[in-house]
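Example 3.2
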Amino acid sequence: MSSNKSFSAETSDRYARAVFELALENSELETVEKNIHDLLNLYNKNINLVNFFKNPTQSFSDQLNVINKISEVMTFSKTLKNFLSILVVKRRIFFLKKILLSFLKLASIKKGKLTAELVSSKILSEEEIKKISKELSQVIGSEINFDYSVDESLIGGFKMQIGSLMIDSSIKNKLKQYEQTMLEQ
């Protein structure tokens, strides 16, 4: 295991891999993936739910009741419902968001899709992002979806990271390189 990864990242990846393998084994990958998208949306929109799951003083029974109610209302697959119950019992529900995001990455990889990070100095339109994604997908040979954000401190240009490949064409980075060159002389 990589020494650069934190305990929570390693734990989240292991649990995500477990539910991913269960979903594959039970031929429920698409269902579980949709359920996880729904749960992640609920989790991101409800701070009370986040606080409830992250509160170590909550009892197993209360957390299990909430998991069961959410699973029933949102019609989760039995695989996901049981998995969420295990997270509660093992006291790993604290890592729920990281586990869900790790699962979604695994599902994307399985479908031949890559997720990349794109940071620009100005707001790009949806069309511009789609165009960049389409052109880059053709070059790489896999569909690329961007996690997009804006960072005005870049001054101009963009930064993109696809796996371990980092492309930084920002003015901020170029100025830093010029500064470094001047200091070395």
